[in-house]
Design goal:
Length: 311
């Protein structure tokens, strides 16, 4: 018998054997895809679900608090019975771009980026953390402990650290304060930098790399708890009015039932011993339903600066 015919018969018998095995072995079978030349195992619907992508570009604790966000991710994952992928980004703009494009499903963002994303592409509040029982926080202007500077006005001609260009407490608030003084960062400070981290700004002031900085009150309190050796070398000279706290947001297009499930898990997290432990590590009392009007004062600051820029 010609060699080619033998090979064809062998292949034909092999395929028949596979078909027979597949038809008799039940749910634990393997589906053979001859066109892709690999084996696809049957899996449960939960295991093949696309993971929810949770962004961490802006957090109410600094980067070293990642462990608590990992624990929060695991907690949500267990309660939802759905995989969640943590996605870390270095600045707020990157996170908003991913939320807009669908590269992220939800994220912890700063108040400023929430206001921008809500206006430009329908970013929604999913839940807000409560600190000291309130959904608010402040911008602190800090200087070295032994600095003669007593208030923000005393920083004229000095060096200054902003955090992120889109940060509310770390950039918008001090820029608004300067605008009210008919000044800009360029005209007011001898030099200024962006640290891209509130903890980094606190460290820069403590080490006297800069003469002053604007930082998130929540991060200041976290550092004061975890690293008092840094905050003891700095002091707060100006405290802003309260602003809507950095929220957990969700992009448009996420399934409505899924949003409700996630929100309910977060709202009841403090009632669970495991959940309380995670919240305590994040210095959060509990999560609450957010109110978009809490962010109106940020919108007013943006509008003021825009009007001044146009003149």
């Amino acid at each position: 018998m010609p060699l080619l015919v033998v090979r064809l018969l062998v292949c034909h018998l092999a395929i028949l054997s596979l078909v027979a095995l597949t038809s008799c072995s039940g749910k634990n079978t393997q589906e053979v895809r001859l066109d892709r030349r690999h084996v696809l195992k049957h899996a449960s619907s939960a295991s093949v679900r696309a993971p929810l992508r949770l962004g961490m570009g802006a957090m109410i604790t600094p980067k070293e608090g990642y462990i608590y966000y990992k624990q929060l991710k695991d907690y949500l994952e267990d309660k939802l019975d759905q995989p969640i992928q943590l996605v870390d980004r270095e600045n707020y703009d990157q996170v908003n771009k991913l939320l807009k494009s669908g590269g992220l499903d939800m994220a912890f963002v700063c108040s400023g980026p929430y206001v921008e994303g809500h206006a430009k592409f329908g970013l929604e509040l999913l839940a807000v953390p409560l600190a000291h029982g309130e959904p608010f926080y402040h911008s602190y202007i800090i200087v070295p402990k032994d600095s003669p500077v007593r208030d923000f006005a005393g920083l004229r001609g000095k060096s200054f650290a902003f955090t992120d260009p889109k940060s509310n407490s770390g950039c918008l608030v001090p820029t608004y304060m300067l605008s009210r003084m008919v000044e800009t960062p360029h005209s007011y400070f001898r030099k200024y930098i962006y640290t891209y981290g509130h903890d980094k700004s606190i460290n820069a002031v403590a080490r006297k790399i800069v003469d002053g900085a604007a930082v998130d009150s929540l991060i200041w309190e976290y550092i004061q708890w975890k690293h008092p050796e840094l905050t003891v070398k700095a002091k707060i000279v100006t405290t802003s009015p309260p602003y809507g706290i950095p929220p957990l947001v969700v992009r448009t297009g996420v399934d409505e039932d899924l949003k409700i499930r996630i929100r309910n898990i977060l709202l009841h997290m403090h009632e669970n011993p495991r959940g309380r432990g995670i919240l305590a590590g994040m210095m959060i009392d509990r999560f609450a339903v957010g109110n978009d009007h809490d962010y109106d004062s940020i919108r007013e600051m943006n509008a003021w600066i825009a009007r001044r820029t146009e003149k």
